[in-house]
Amino acid sequence: MHRKWRAKNARKIGRKTAPAWLLAACAGLVPAAAGAQTLMTDGQTLPIYEQDDGFLSNRNVGPALAPTETPDDNQRLADGTEAPHRPTSASRPASVHISNAPGAAADNSPATVLADSVTLDAQDRLTASGGVVVWHQGTRLIASRVIYDGKTGGAVIEGPIHVTKPGLRGTQDETIVIAQSAQLDANLQDGILRGARLVLAREMQMAAREMRREQNGRITVLDNVVASSCQICAEDPIPLWEVRARRITHDAQTRQLHFDQPQFRAFGVPVASFPSLTAPDPTVERMTGFLRPQFRTTSALGVGFKLPYFITLGDHADVTLTPYLAASRTSTLELRYRQAFSNGEMEWNGAISRDDIEPGETRGYLFGAARFELPRGYMLGLQVQMAKDRAYLLDYDITDADRLWSGVTLDRVRRDRMMTARIGNYESLRDDEPDDTTPSLVADALWQRRWQPNYIGGIANLEWSTHAHRRSSNEDVIGRDMARGSVGMGWLRTEVLPYGMVGEVQGQLNADLYHIKQDSNYDDWVVRADPTLAAELRWPFARHADGVTQIIEPVAQLVWSPDREEEDKVPNEDSTLIEFDEGNLYSLDRFPGWDATESGLRANLGVSWTRIDPEGWQIGLTAGRVLRSHPDPAFNDSGPLGGKASDWLLSANYSGTNGLALVNRALFDDSFSLSRNETRLGWLRPGLQISAGYLWMDADPSEDRFEDVSELTAIAGWQVRDGWWASAETRYDFSADRAQKTQLGLEYRNECVTVEMSVERRFSDSDTLNEDTSFDLGIRLGGFGKQSSGPGTVARRACLR
């Protein structure tokens, strides 16, 4: 007896104690995706506490480590069809139930079948034909005909077959199976698919004459297979690169691809053959094996080659060993060790080298950093930085830092209080900074708290800090050691006055205790106290017309603190460089540290104007000046803040909807003679990234600047055309009329390969550093391991339809 329905109706076919008949197979045809791992920053050597990197977001499990190497930031997604809406099933007075096949797992999930014809004969065989679409647990199967045998539990599917999970479209877990025909075993997980194609994460595609599913769908075996992540067109079926193999085995649990007798081809030409090969599938973030090789050529080391080897030590640790050989001129082994804990992370980077730059010498470096979250919100940091010399760091392209710091930090930040402490050792790599006369051992601690007083209102704050540093020299003056303890109290209150004016009053009291050793120019012990009183008046005016908003705000601030007595004099170790800009125009004290402070009666005067256009762009101007009753000796009567009247400050800024931001800041005297000028430009838009700055500063011996500074720095990246991204970086010293650094880069990316090239020229006038030119080349094939997107677009091969 036959039950037959014509017309395109939906059928719900369920079972009382078993999985829905075919869709257990549909779900089994799509390889299972392993859980994603928590990502971390790669290559970080300095703890950064002010940024929330999400590292400790999951407190229940230990965090996993980052990808095996810095990805090329290229996420490749091919075009795909939109998933149709799930149709509403027609209700029927009776349902068709298929009994459980022997050995099948129990699952009462119903399946939805759409077909032109669905029949169930007396032999318990169900046949769906004519545009068959089957939905089950998010998996969609499209076929021309499906036959399910209720007695044996097997199923025969006639194609073309197309199996997907529309909910995973565009994600790394998306898998597509295409075949001409399929025959499934009784467990509806294993079977044979002929004329099959498997697409993983829309990157790696494998076409085979036959594909077998084994071990309940965990293992997929493809025979006589071709694999590539390149777009393949019917009119030109030869991809940019491909791997032909006798067999490819994909393990859905380990997410690995095993190639049997693979042959690598480029443009259809055989390039290399191997007995066997194991590689990660596109969803893998970490797996033991070789990473992308790098070719590097430098003036000092000649032509060289790097081949990193990555070793996983579980989910929470890994090691990367990188041998570096260069034209018999260097033998270097680089090492990186990383480990993640439930409450922190650590990373160690180092290298050891024997080269002909310094024959017979062993050179190297070691950088390490760790960060841990302690109870009650404390953060503990550890850093180690050691190097043979600065030239080694530059020769091997490690870092251009000229000062190294090793020590321990402890921080805790809350809404109304903060504590930070650090102790460590500085090592200067500069030629003009001798180690014995430069402070090496330095310790700092700072505690702050803010609250709102009950009776007087406003905001009160309390601060306590200590500092100590030591030089290794025992000579008088140049071997000075110093320690300081400070306490400060402050109060500020702001009120809105009649006519829209805003008034503010504040007061501070700072007390310092200094202990000075090995400097006969100062007393051994110095105690001082500095009270400060200030009153400020702002009167903002706003106008809105034709959608344009304009705001003008004049500000006058009067500040008083007593003149500094001669017996209170201490050496200025932490406030030698002073900034004067719109950010501290209305500050009570512009010295960045504690050793030097402003004193006397002074008026901080300024006015700002802002225009906000309805189209989204904005422009602003700020002008100001500081007037004093008499020159402040702390400024040595020099610089922009010296004398009774400071230089004029004029700042302009612009920001537009096109991603352009421009800021210029100038300091000049009454005769319009510039003492400082700074211009910064940023432009971020699709296909263009620019960050540039120009700085001019007059010579000022009080700041150890004996020559004028005129310097340009610029970093740019732009889209040349689809797939081509160019970058440039330069630093030019106009005073010395020479470049300090120049770098050019070019990157090509399409859907299956990334090629990176860069050339860099380093200039030097030092006796210990030589000029050097380097060239780097790197190639990465897509489809092996997880990769993420980078700047610019990706070139994709277009096929004629």
UniProtKB/TrEMBL annotation:
Residues 362-724 form the LptD C-terminal domain. Keywords: Cell outer membrane, Membrane, Signal. The keyword Signal applies. It comes from Paracoccus litorisediminis. Component of the lipopolysaccharide transport and assembly complex. Involved in the assembly of lipopolysaccharide (LPS) at the surface of the outer membrane. It comes from the Bacteria. Residues 1-36 form the signal peptide. It is found in: Cell outer membrane. PANTHER family: LPS-ASSEMBLY PROTEIN, LPS-ASSEMBLY PROTEIN LPTD. The gene is lptD. GO terms for cellular component: cell outer membrane; transporter complex. Residues 57-109 are annotated as: Disordered. The keyword Transcription does not apply. This is LPS-assembly protein LptD. Belongs to the LptD family.
